[in-house]
Amino acid sequence: MVLSRERLLDLTTGREAMAFDRAIDNQVSRLRRKIERDPSAPHLIVTIRGGGYSLSAEVEELPP
How far does CA 64 lie from the centroid of its chain? Predict the structure, then answer.
């Protein structure tokens, strides 16, 4: 599933996104530095040109 910058802003800050708002790009960059082996060539959080971002890692639910 691809989430647009505007949708991510709505989900994280609860405000309408401005056309030039790069807050999500900054947050994704920081997150990549923490979780990616090589943040300059990300494999877990992928940028979809013209679309937004997609999580490409497998996610498992932990047992209760």
Answer: 27
Full-model pTM:
0.72
Using the predicted structure, report yes or no on whether residue 14 has a pLDDT greater than 70. no
Q: Which residues contact 6 (CB under 8 A, 6 or more apart)?
A: 17
The values of phi and psi at residue 46, to 5°, are: -105, 135
All domains of the chain in start order, with CATH? 2-55 (1.10.10.10)
Name the strand (E) or helix (H) holding 33. Answer: helix 23-35
